[in-house]
Amino acid sequence: MGKPLAIVTGGCGFIGSHMVDVLVDKGFAVHVVDSLVGGREANIARHSANSDVRFFKEDIRALEPGNAIFDGAKFVFHFAGIGDIVPSIERPLDYMSVNAQGTVQVLECARAAGVEKLVYAASSSCYGLAAVPTDESHVIDTKYPYALSKYQGEQAVLHWHSVYGLPVNSVRIFNAYGTRSRTSGAYGAVFGVFLKQKLAGKPLTIVGDGTQSRDFLYVTDVAKAFYAAADTDRVGEIYNLGAGNPQTVNYLASLLGGETVALPKRPGEPDCTWADITKIKTELGWKPEVSFEQGVSKILDNIDYWREAPLWDVDSIADATKTWFRFMQEKQNG
């Protein structure tokens, strides 16, 4: 009897590549589906010599039911999508196409293959400016196209469960961080911005006064949570995923070290994200293992990975976020 098969869409990306690690360790054969947009080829090399891991360069929107990639799959982990938040204001069509319609294509492939479980990588951005700590019953308030597209993908996932009986769970990620995060493309996650600035000897650009806090969870803990969401009898569930222990941007900057410079606070962004992780801990027996300090240390040990990342400064960030400010400020002012 051969090894069980798992599919990881976006498996050359940040969280997806760590998901492949977990699955290989669990004795799975893995099919990685990735469009390789944004220079993700480096993560292929990690498993290129492993005959149990096969790579398929595919745009998820082009996947059709009956695709042989999914034949015999036990689990599908769906991470593929566009993850940059700020550019979603300028590119709503792309976000809706990839994150919503692309998810539907994956669902249909999974349904045709008769998979035992599909786990969807949802986003806590669906909660908007949420009350904290935030549990799964919190009101939905999507503030920008990225949040909407990821939430509509989740709605499709749950719809395929209720209508077609596809076994699914959805995991709403708060703030994942760690090694192998994206180093190219649009202005985005704070870690990548800070690490390149540190390498270049430039000041760390802190939005607002730096007291805003984020529920950072190290990426290996994220991948283990997704496996727990697959390896369970529970279906049709939504789980919030964070460390349950928010950290301020100022504290992150102090751990990284170096000078700082302040940027204007962005409208439409929460002062605090904080996942209530009671449900995932209770129902799936998962808990975070890597402390924030340990996680930052791991990143600093691998800081050279970000050497080729774009260097952002006050002026380039202002240019990259000008459309965001225009639309979000207008919305805020009502």
Automatic annotation (TrEMBL):
The protein's name: NAD-dependent epimerase/dehydratase family protein
Family: Belongs to the NAD(P)-dependent epimerase/dehydratase family.
PANTHER family cross-referenced by the UniProt entry: DTDP-D-GLUCOSE 4,6-DEHYDRATASE-RELATED
Top-level taxonomic group: Bacteria
Record pathway: Bacterial outer membrane biogenesis; LPS O-antigen biosynthesis
Family annotation (Pfam families): Epimerase (PF01370)
Annotated NAD-dependent epimerase/dehydratase domain residues: 7-242
